[in-house]
Amino acid sequence: MRVLHTSDWHIGRRFKGIDLLDYQRKALEWLVSLIEHERVDVLCVSGDVYDAPRPSAEAVRLFGWVFQRLGLMEVNGHPLQIVFTPGNHDSAARLGFGAALMRPNVHMRCGIEDIATPVLVDSADGGQLAIYALPYLDPDLARPTLQGLLDSQKDRQNGLKIARSHEGVMRAALRLATADLASRRAANPRLNAILMAHAFVSGAASSDSERNITVGGVDSVPAELFSNSGLDYLALGHLHRPQKITIPTKPTTESQFHLDRTPQARYSGSLLAYSFSESQTPPVEGNGKSVVLLDFTDGHLAKPRIMPVESGEPPFVQIKGTMDDVLGPLAEQYRNMWVSITVQVPELPHGAYQKIDRAYTHALEKNFDYSQRTQSQERRKMVDLKQATDEMDVLRDFVKFSLGRTPTDKEERVLRDAMETVRKNAGKEVAQ
Length: 432
Fold this sequence. Notes:
Elements: E1 2-6, E2 14-15, E3 18-19, H1 21-38, E4 42-46, H2 57-71, E5 74-75, E6 78-79, E7 81-85, H3 92-95, E8 106-108, E9 119-122, E10 128-133, H4 139-152, H5 166-187, E11 192-198, E12 233-237, E13 243-245, E14 264-267, E15 290-297, E16 300-301, E17 305-308, E18 316-321, H6 323-327, H7 329-334, E19 338-344, H8 352-359, E20 362-369, H9 375-378, H10 391-403, H11 409-431
Parallel strand pairs: 1-4, 4-7, 7-8, 10-11, 11-12, 12-14, 18-19, 19-20
Antiparallel strand pairs: 1-15, 2-3, 5-6, 9-10, 13-14, 15-16, 15-17
Helix pairs in contact: 1-2, 4-5, 10-11
C-alpha cells in the first residue's frame, strides 16, 4: 500500500502582497499527477488546508477544484482514499461541513470525538492500515471533550487529569488512539498504523511563516511522548520546513504506552515557501518544498521517499551587502528572483528604495543595517521632547539622529510642507 503525506497547503495565502493562487494551483496540479503516476492508494493532508478560517471565494474555488479531482480519482482499481484534518489556520467546523454526506473514500476528520476511531484501509496483499487523524488540538477547547472521552473508558484512565498545554492534550489523544490500536493489533498483528497530527514536536526547526500556537507558555510536544506508541509513522503538519524528527526509543517499561513500535516521523512541510527564512542555498525554483511517499509491504514500512514539489514558485533569496554590492554584482546574479535585501550603510542613501526597485524585478523586503556607523554616530541620542519648542525641532533632531547631520534646505522644505499638511488635515477633522 502506498501513502502520500502532505500538509500546510495554506490555500489563499499571499506573500508580501503577491497573490500565490497560481503557484498553489500548479502545486496541486502536480500533486494530482504524482498520485496518478506513483499509483498512490491513500492521501493524508495533515492540517492547514486553507490559510484562514474564513477563506476567500477564490481560495474556496481552488480547493473545490482539487477536492473534486481527488475525490473522483481511482487508483489500482479502487477509489483514492483521502484523509483531511484541520490545522490551527483552518476552521474545523467549516472544513468539515457536510462530511457525513461525502463519498465513502473521502474522510474529513475534523471532530475530536473521532480520535480513537481510525480510517481503515485494506491493501491488495491482505494487509490493513489504520489512520488515526487528529484535528489541531487547542488546549483550552480540546480538554473538556478529551477529558470526557478518557473518563468514559472502562478503566477511567486512573483519574487522569489533562494539563493545560499542547503536551497535555496530545498525551490524552494518544492514550485514546493507542488503546484502540492495541486492541486491534491483538486481533491483527500485521496491522500498520499512522497518526496524523498538527503540532510542534520538540527537536523540529521552525520558520518565520508559521503562526505561533503557544498556549500558557507551552507550545511544543516532547518527541519522546510518541516512543513505543505502536505507531509506524507520524504524519506531522504545522511546520513549513520539510524535515525528519527523531523519536527516541525507550525500554517498553519506561514508555507511556508500552507498545512494541516507535514511529518514523516527518513534517512534510508546506507546498510553497511563505517566508524568506525558507530560502535555499543555492536558490532553487520551488524553494526545496516536498511531500513524502510511504510504502507498506507485509506489515513493514519502507524508508520514506521525498518527492520535490513542482510549483514554479520563484527562488527566494536573502541578500546582504553594501549599496555598491546590492546594486552591482548581486543584482546581476539575483535580478529576477524574489529577494529580501539588507543594505549595510552608515546612513540612508538618497533614493535608495528607488534604486533597488530599478535593479530588481521583485525586491520584496528592503532593510537597512546601520552597524557601520561611526562611534560618534552611535553616541547620538534621540530628540528630547521636553527641550523641543515646536514640531520642526522634533523633525530636525530626528534627521540628525537618523543620518548624523542636520537636514538640507530642500529636506527642511519637505518636512515643513508635510507638517503643514498634517496640521490642515487635523483641523478639518476637528471641524467635522
